[in-house]
Design goal:
heterotrimer, A mainly alpha, B mainly alpha, C alpha/beta, B: mainly alpha, two-stranded antiparallel ribbon, two-stranded antiparallel sheet, 14 helices, 3% strand, C: alpha/beta, Rossmann fold, six-stranded mixed β-sheet, four-stranded antiparallel β-sheet, 9 helices, 10 strands, 24% strand, globular
Chain lengths: 290, 333, 248
């Protein structure tokens, strides 16, 4: 593998990693704090892409599309929490799997009813459509750099917020000790809605950024959901640190696996890596609970 | 001395016999009324019922929410398909030092399919069962996708498009691609599986398995190491799922990665819950309900997943004991 | 003096900076009923959990029948004859009382990799389980689901499960917890009957029961053993009075 190709794939891998981090942050926090397995998290990723593509197409502004998509997915997330999922925090994991599995079916079908079964075009604004020469002999798409930048900034903000601020302290308290969250006088209900909405918005953001690179289509959320689950499990459920490390790791393994082997074999390598890590550390790299 | 009569399970045996009898009369009735399509539907019901009964051994009796069973179903199907491929193409299958010519003889390949899928379940169970709860669910889901991508990666055997079985398959002289043979062979397999599982859950092994699902800590304190029992149940359950996949591949002469998608694993879980997790026969009813519902809704609307998804959500919200439990409560009230 | 049945040597368990078990050296002699008392939060359940093997100690050793069992998993200890009843009732709610106890008998008889014969039709197995239940006063409740038993009955069931293991030592973690007066008296009488057949390590708050049952007492305060001795010695011990009985 030549050096430019290696650098390009490394960038691709880190870029996939930050996207996975955005996805798994919501999953891991929702599980860590509310003890809920949300298989429907991928649906918010899909909705983010569809909403952004539609608004950008109608208004001609990519930025407006992005903002609307993030706000809309946050709102959908909050609505889901209030209307349905909060009943499931104390239910069995089986019930949680069932309800979120049902949600996937509903979301996919509704999306198809609104936007159709044909993949949707999501055009980039001219300013980020081209590529630039990063190193001699290595051109890299500007938009991928934008994703990388946005992902890193948002990831960093999230990290700082959770690790350094009072809100973050509540959230972490909730993640490592659910009873404590209410004991220290936090308005638990609001924190729960907030965490859910934030997780949804991050998934929406990841989806809208992936839209122009991958196809915007029904079912696009599931493969990413599964990678995000792998990230969550490897990182240790409830651990933001773990999600970050595992996301970058999986991003790199997936990217290089696809290039060096075949796409399908590359995908298998991720799951093998997961198996090896869990055989060694069953609670993930950064276990939170017990 | 106190009355030591074993807990009566005559009702369960009756339900098993009744279900088998009802299924057995579907083909003659279907042909009498000129609806041979119904036999195809019934075959599908039977095959998925086998897989669901297998899954429920770990899900309902063992308390393990596995999303790996579509993958194991597929493993069984691929064993049939791959062995038949080698037989048909006259090219030996090389597994390390072993070279095997392949076979279309189901008396050989069906047991092999069960063994290989049970082995795969055991292997993945070793890792998955180091964890529990949410981790277990997510890990089995991930392993399911691993098997899915393995199917896609098998370019030689059709890759993403799936594997069409070309040679002739035979089961002791019977041709499983014939509609009735496929149906009755599968029904016989379902009968065997139900009898075995019904005996199993009342055996010493079954008592331990059911106990681990209720209170693992207690089981350990009694001197029983739970993991080996769970693992055994997981492997048995995987073997049953593999049998179902092998039967489907034999009957339809086709197996593809799409049969292994994790959504299919979710479908199997829904079947079990629909029919009720507490009995061996419930999942059979659940599989029938699921597939008929799917068929009925999709004949009404293309957007059938919407009402179907709502039903699943409604079930999760309100019905802990499945449709059967709801009917039972309704009858009793 | 005979060799102790169970012995801990310098057992220490820390949780982060907190010392839950601080250098505990304790012994239970064969046939002895040894009570472990101490105020709430003294670390009694933590100690039991280490003896049973649910929680590894940070350092120190545990001996049972003279064998070092510190590293053995709990199910191996159970098979050696260490039976625990839990402080918070821990039965199998979807099984009948008989099935609960049958599982204990089954566990003692060796592995359960038997797939065909129905456990419910196994006469010797059921008879033995029924006997343990009868001994604990549940003869007429055999076929009631454990989840439907009253609190007191579930405690009796716990005890029946422990007896069915034919243990060398019963670890009883507050067998009377949450019981009413009548149930408590019944349980005390039952334990007094069992006393002659089993060695016991009894954790209990009911002092009347403890003083009537125990041959020896050990007092645990903030994870440390401050005294061990006969009922009279413990009653007279000024440190114990200051630390514990004085507040009671």
């Amino acid at each position: 593998m030549s050096l430019p190709l290696f650098l390009e794939q490394t960038l691709n891998g880190v870029q996939l990693g930050v996207m996975l981090f955005l996805m798994s942050a919501g999953l891991t926090l929702v599980f860590g704090i509310m003890n809920l397995i949300n298989l429907a998290h991928g649906a918010l990723y899909m909705l983010g892409a569809f909403i952004a593509a539609t608004v950008a197409d109608k208004s001609g502004s990519f930025l407006l599309g992005a903002v609307v998509a993030v706000v809309a997915t946050a709102a959908i997330g909050a609505l889901l929490e209030v209307a349905l999922l909060r009943r499931f925090y104390h239910r069995s994991h089986l019930d949680q799997v069932l309800v979120t599995f049902g949600l996937i079916l509903v979301f996919n079908q509704v999306t198809q009813l609104i936007w159709g079964a044909v993949p949707m075009r999501f055009n980039l604004p001219d300013a980020v459509a081209g590529s630039i020469e990063l190193f001699p002999g290595m051109n890299y798409p500007v938009f991928r750099l934008v994703i990388l930048g946005v992902g890193l900034v948002v990831g960093l903000l999230l990290y700082v917020m959770i690790m350094r601020t009072r809100i973050g302290m509540w959230v972490r308290a909730g993640a490592s000790n659910r009873a404590m969250a209410s004991a220290i006088g936090v308005n638990v209900e609001m924190v729960f809605i907030g965490v859910f909405a934030a997780g949804a918005a991050l998934a929406g953001l990841a989806g809208l950024m992936a839209g122009p690179i991958l196809a915007v289509q029904v079912g696009m959320g599931e493969p990413v959901l599964i990678l995000a689950l792998v990230v969550t499990v490897i990182g240790g459920i409830g651990s933001i640190n773990g999600a970050l490390v595992a996301a970058i790791m999986i991003g790199l393994i997936d990217t290089f696996g696809r290039v060096l082997l075949s796409p399908a074999l590359g995908s298998m390598v991720i799951f093998l890596a997961m198996a090896v890590i869990l055989a060694w550390k069953p609670k993930g790299l950064f276990p939170v609970h017990g | 001395m106190a009355d030591l009569a074993p807990t009566p399970n005559r009702r369960d045996w009756f339900a098993i016999l009744l279900l088998l009898a009802v299924l057995a009369v579907v083909p003659p009735i279907a042909e009498a009324v000129g609806q041979p399509f119904a036999i195809k539907v019934a075959s599908r019901v039977v095959v998925f019922a086998i897989a669901a009964v297998g899954l429920n051994l770990v899900l309902g009796f063992g308390g393990m929410v596995s999303l790996l069973h579509a993958g194991l179903f597929g493993v069984g199907g691929y064993v049939i398909g791959i062995l038949a491929w080698h037989d048909f193409n006259g090219e030996a299958l090389h597994l390390g030092p072993i070279a095997y010519a392949g076979t279309g003889n189901l008396l050989i390949s069906l047991p092999l399919a069960v063994l290989v899928s049970a082995g795969a379940a055991a292997l993945m169970g070793v890792v998955s069962l180091r964890t529990n709860g949410a981790y277990f669910i997510m890990i089995t889901l991930a392993f399911n996708q691993m098997l899915y991508y393995l199917g896609v990666a098998l370019q030689k055997y059709g890759g993403e498009d799936g594997l069409q079985i070309q040679g002739d398959l035979s089961l002791a002289g019977l041709d499983p691609s014939k509609r009735l043979v496929y149906f009755y062979v599968s029904l016989a397999a379902l009968a065997v599986v139900m009898v075995l599982v019904q005996r199993l859950v009342g055996s010493r092994f079954g008592m331990v398995l059911r106990a681990t699902a209720q209170n693992e800590r207690r089981v350990k304190a009694l001197g029983i190491p739970p993991t080996r029992y769970r693992l055994t149940a997981f492997a048995l359950s995987g073997g049953i799922a593999g049998l179902a996949g092998a039967l489907m591949a034999s009957g339809q002469q086709f197996i593809s990665p799409a049969d292994m998608s994790w959504v299919r694993s979710g479908d199997l879980v829904v079947m079990c819950v629909l029919g009720g997790l507490t009995t061996v026969w419930g999942p059979v009813l659940g599989a029938a309900l699921f597939l008929l519902l799917e068929l009925g809704l999709s004949s009404l609307t293309n957007a059938w997943q919407l009402p179907f998804g709502l039903i699943v959500i409604g079930m999760a919200v309100w019905l802990h004991d499945g449709l059967i439990g709801a009917i039972r409560r309704w009858v009793q009230s | 003096m005979s060799a102790p049945l169970l012995e801990t040597r310098n057992l220490i368990r820390r949780f982060g900076g907190l010392v839950a078990t601080g250098d505990v050296s304790l012994s239970v002699l064969p046939g002895e009923t040894h009570a472990l008392i101490g105020p709430n939060g003294a670390g009694k359940t933590t100690l039991i959990a280490q003896l049973q093997g649910e929680l590894p100690p940070s350092s120190g050793q545990i001996f049972f029948h003279g064998q070092d069992i510190t590293a053995l998993p709990s199910h191996r200890r159970a098979l050696m004859g260490l039976a625990r009843s839990f402080q918070i009732t821990s039965v199998l709610p979807d099984f009948t009382a008989l099935e609960n106890v049958r599982l204990a008998v089954q566990a003692r008889q060796g592995h359960s990799f038997r797939f065909w014969r129905q456990a419910g039709a196994d006469r010797p197995l059921n008879a033995e389980a029924a006997e343990a239940l009868e001994r604990c006063g549940l003869a007429d409740r055999l076929h009631v689901l454990a989840g439907l038993l009253s609190h007191g009955e579930r405690r009796q069931l716990e005890l029946a499960m422990a007896l069915a293991m034919r243990p060398a030592l019963l670890l009883l973690d507050e067998p009377m917890a949450g019981m009413g007066k009548q149930d408590g008296i019944r349980m005390t009488r039952l334990l007094a009957e069992l006393k002659s057949d089993y060695a016991m390590l009894l954790v209990e708050h009911d002092m009347e029961a403890v003083f009537s049952l125990a041959d020896r007492l050990s007092v645990l305060v903030q994870g440390r053993l401050i005294a061990t001795g006969s009922v009279e010695e413990i009653r007279a011990n000024p440190a114990v009075q200051a630390a514990y009985l004085g507040h009671g």
